[in-house]
Amino acid sequence: MKTKEFKPIKRHNALVQFSREHHFGLLLVWKIREGIKNGIDPERIGRYTLCFFDRELRPHFLEEENFFFGKLPEDDPLVLQALKEHKSISIIIDELSRDNNNMQILMNFASLLEDHIRFEERVLFNHLQNILSNDELRKTVKQQNQKTCNADDEWKDKFWENNKRSGGGSVQKLAAGLTLMISFCFFMGCSTNEKTENNKPEEHETSMVHSEDSSVSLSLNDGRKWKADSITNINVAVIENIVSTSHPETTDEFHAIGIEIQGAVNKLLQDCKMHGPDHEALHHWLEPILETNNKLSESRTMDETKENFGKMRDRILIYHQYFE
Q1: Element (H, E) at 209
Q2: Cβ(204)–Cβ(222) below 8 Å
Q3: Residues 162, 167, 169, 175: is their CA dihedral positive or negative?
């Protein structure tokens, strides 16, 4: 059976911020599961989850309801489902606040939140774009307060980082800067680590993609997709969302998106725990993105800027042809 290819959804500007907040919600799900998998005290995970909900998710739910849900008929089945799920998530948060050392409550919350976000991204938001007029959606943009997820800013107990594998010093250097030099130091460091683990590169000969900007080629794993870990797929979704929902018009706006993409790539590399041939294939996908983003930052004419952004976007959006 042919695998159904992922096609990023073009979001109306009114929903872009909410889609980005959804990605941070999926990161919360991953952090909870990572903590449980690594044997972290459930109380530590519970405290963070409650904090994140109060700072990020509760306002997110209220804004969805105030900006969008009230504009549709009261008996709209998809809105009713979303409201029901908001209530269910709030109820389980109340349970967690009374017993934040309960691993089962945390697992139930993570599953419920993930399913809810997938429903809104794949079904509800498309429905809103189809039902609401452009004028109605544009009005909500003016009402929205631009914000970024800051739940981690003052949170010192980053339990999800406890079991990061050793040898990640080059990854930390990459996160500290935006240059290709640091990025390639990361790649070199990973290659060294893989050799010490006796992971030898393998040859794969199907569906090869060559980049004009790099000697690096990307191919399938003998006709099969490479295996990425869950946090890598989540972080790639963030990058895909940036290029799919952005509509830059000036060189400065293109450059700002490039900086945002670089930050998301740095986050992907920080979190990545892949190794072996799958990890090497991920590098093959990433290197042309980093090269083209560097060229984008140096572009001065609009034609050059659009060309580099287009190449970078196209490379980003082939990810699901090669990874699962």
Answers
A1: strand 209-210
A2: yes
A3: negative
Higher pLDDT, 237 or 6: 237
Hey, what are 63's tokens?
């804004």
Alpha carbon distances (Å) from 14 to 59, 134, 149, 285 = 16, 9, 17, 31
Terminal CA-to-CA distance of the chain, rounded, Å?
15
- What are the residues whose beta carbons fall under 8 Å from the beta carbon of 170, sequence distance 6 or more? 185, 186, 188, 189, 190
What is the signed CA dihedral for 237, 238, 244, 246, rounded to 10 degrees? Answer: 180
Domain-by-domain residue ranges, the chain? 13-154, 169-322
Tell me, yes or no, if the pTM score tops 0.70: no
> What are the backbone dihedrals phi and psi of residue 128, each rounded to the nearest 5 degrees, phi first?
-60, -45
Identify the residue with better confidence: 27 or 69: 69
How far apart CA 310 and CA 288 sit, in angstroms, is 12
d(CA 154, CA 152): 6
* Residue 180: Cβ-neighbour burial (10 angstroms; 0-12, 13-18, 19+): middle
Res 60: pLDDT: 93
Nearest-angstrom CA–CA distance, 235 and 260? 13
